[in-house]
Design a protein that fits this description.
The complex is a heterodimer of chains A (261) and B (254). By secondary structure, chain A is an all-alpha fold. Helix content of chain A is 81%, strand content 0%. Chain A has a single domain, classed as Orthogonal Bundle (ABC transporter involved in vitamin B12 uptake, BtuC), CATH 1.10.3470. The radius of gyration of chain A is 18 Å and the shape is globular. The termini of chain B are close together. In chain B, helix 3 packs across helix 4. Chain B is built from nine helices and nine strands. In chain B, strand 8 and strand 9 form a beta hairpin. Chain B is of the alpha/beta class and 254 residues long. In chain B, the strands form two sheets. Chain B has a six-stranded mixed β-sheet with strand order 5-6-7-3-8-9, with helices on both faces. In chain B, 39% of the residues lie in helices and 24% in strands. Chain B is globular. The chains are: A mainly alpha (261), B alpha/beta (254). Chain B: GO terms for molecular function: ATP binding. Chain B: This is Zinc ABC transporter ATP-binding protein ZnuC. Chain B: Pfam families: ABC_tran. Chain B: Keywords: ATP-binding, Cell membrane, Ion transport, Membrane, Nucleotide-binding, Translocase, Transport, Zinc, Zinc transport.
Chain lengths: 261, 254
């Protein structure tokens, strides 16, 4: 197997492993659109990183987090529904990112790579970053697992029982921002949510507990990455979209299993 | 009332909650002692839930004071529960999310008359079953105070009486106080020590018998209330015929 494919596999599997459990929370908490909005703001983070000449992953995570906080502040006003606010933020930040990036460094940036992923150009340093950040995210998820589940089930009940709800919720947003930062290389900002949502949705019918669903989602994500890279290598498919289609295939297959709780 | 020599668990002084320029709760004074059942009644939009949320620390207090006994263990039963269908969660798992293990969860379910539900998915429960599971989760906290927001929602009429009787039984068994929100009067009154009638401000409060004769109460609930008092009295007698010693305190001051 050529080196570039091994590196791509290393990066893809690392992202798939974290995207599984985190994607489950995105599905349980109905945060799909929210994830999309955060991912779209990643492009602004890239521009910021290029401008200030700092680590792009850190800049993207920072940009996503900033957006999440802006959204929380906007939600307080309660004038507009959350999905309207998300629609505004999602597309404005994407448009702003596209404009900014073309002004800051015309021609220097592989825009398509940011939009749809550039997994075949993964470097060893990328793989190390992904696994380090991934391990951190999984660690925090495991540590906060019960309070996260508790606030997903009923926030008020969790608060009365002593869970620090806003701290846990902010932590979840931070984890999401980190995962978006490392997943951008693999599938690009436009497809990141797919990597979060589709494996988790596919895992639903195969699981009886939240933990089972999280692990199954990781496994399905890993299969999708492997299949997508194979399709890319043998049939010359674009790698990012091929990975997403792999996950979609798994989801369609999961529909064949009879529905149950 | 014997509660004067009992420990004070909750007290509010001139507690007010305003939101968006509207006063939802206006200068509410109430006190709840160990082992006592206090029922908040009032029409829709009277601020019952707002007041209870303020006491639970779930909402902001605009003015006034709130005292909670330090370290007070509260078991809370929320009004509604929506768990997304995508979350595979059994009743056992739901109950242990608040702490404790499966065996304690099973015992709590047996206590609330829902013993067979341990391995059911949460989303498959009926309204009445959900209420009993929520009550079991509140019990698992070993509460000194049970806070119940419209506990009989989505429960059929015969189930409602049974659920209130169960709450009353549990209060004696655990020796805990109960803070209850309700809008159906007759069922509640058979099993309560103090009624607080809320309509933004507190209109009247006292024993059920006392409150139902209060002009402020009659003005608020009108003839419907009087019709229900008759029902209440009937229900009350009926409950005593079946199990005379179930509410010794009530007969004490009746």
């Amino acid at each position: 197997m050529p080196d570039f494919l091994l590196l791509a596999l290393g990066a893809g599997l690392g992202v798939a492993l974290v995207a599984g459990p985190l994607g489950c929370f995105a599905v349980w908490r109905r945060m799909a659109y929210f994830g999309d909005t955060m991912a779209h703001s990643a492009l602004l983070g890239v521009t910021l990183g290029l401008l200030l000449d700092i680590n792009l992953n850190a800049a993207v995570a920072f940009g996503c987090l900033l957006l999440a906080l802006a959204l929380v502040a906007l939600q307080r006003s309660r004038q507009l529904a959350t999905d309207t606010l998300l629609g505004i933020l999602s597309h404005s930040t994407l448009a702003l990112g596209l404009v900014a990036i073309s002004l800051v460094s015309p021609g220097r940036v592989n825009l398509l790579g940011y939009l749809f992923g550039d997994i075949l150009a993964t470097t060893a340093a990328d793989v190390i970053t992904i696994w380090l950040v991934g391990a951190l995210v999984l660690g925090v998820l495991a540590w906060l697992w019960r309070p996260l589940l508790a606030i997903t089930v009923h926030e008020d009940l969790a608060r009365v029982e002593g869970v620090r709800v806003s701290a846990v919720r902010t932590a979840l947003m931070l984890l999401m921002a980190l995962v978006i930062a490392i997943a951008m290389k693999v599938v690009g900002v436009l497809l990141i949510t797919a990597l979060l949502i589709i494996p988790a949705a596919a895992a639903r019918r195969l699981s009886h507990t939240p933990e089972q669903m999280a692990i199954t989602a990781s496994a399905i994500g890993a299969l999708a990455v492997t299949g997508g890279l194979a399709a890319s290598f043998y049939w010359d498919w674009p790698a990012g979209p091929a990975i997403v289609l792999g996950a979609t295939g798994a989801f369609v297959l999961s529909l064949l299993k009879p529905s149950r709780f | 009332m014997p509660e004067t020599n009992r420990e004070l668990l909750v007290q509010t002084r001139q507690l007010s909650v305003e939101r968006g320029g509207r006063t939802l709760v206006d200068s509410a004074d109430l006190a709840l002692h160990a082992g006592e059942i206090l029922t908040l009644i009032g029409p829709n939009g009277a601020g019952k839930t707002t007041l209870v949320r303020a006491i639970l620390g779930l909402g902001n207090i605009t003015r006034g004071e709130l005292y909670l006994k330090p370290g007070l263990r509260i078991g809370y039963m929320p009004q509604t529960l929506h768990i997304d269908a995508s979350l595979p969660l059994t009743v056992a798992r739901f109950l242990t999310l608040g702490g404790g293990d499966k065996h304690r969860a099973q015992r709590a379910l047996e206590r609330t008359g829902a013993a067979g539900l341990l391995h059911q998915p949460m989303q498959a429960l009926s309204g009445g079953e959900t209420q009993r599971v929520l009550l079991a989760r509140a019990l698992l906290r070993n509460p000194q105070l049970l806070v119940l927001d419209e506990p009989v929602q989505g429960v059929d009429v015969s189930g409602q009486a049974a659920l209130y009787a169960l709450i009353n039984e549990l209060r004696h068994e655990l020796g805990c106080a109960v803070l209850l929100i309700s809008h159906d009067l007759h069922l509640v009154m058979a099993n309560t020590d103090t009624v607080v009638c809320l309509n933004g401000h507190i209109c009247c409060h006292g024993h059920p018998e006392q409150v139902t004769n209060d002009p402020a109460y009659l003005e608020l609930f009108g003839h419907r209330a009087q019709a229900q008092i008759a029902l209440y009295t009937h229900h009350h007698d009926h409950a005593h015929d079946q199990c005379g010693e179930i509410d010794p305190e009530h007969s004490h001051h009746a």
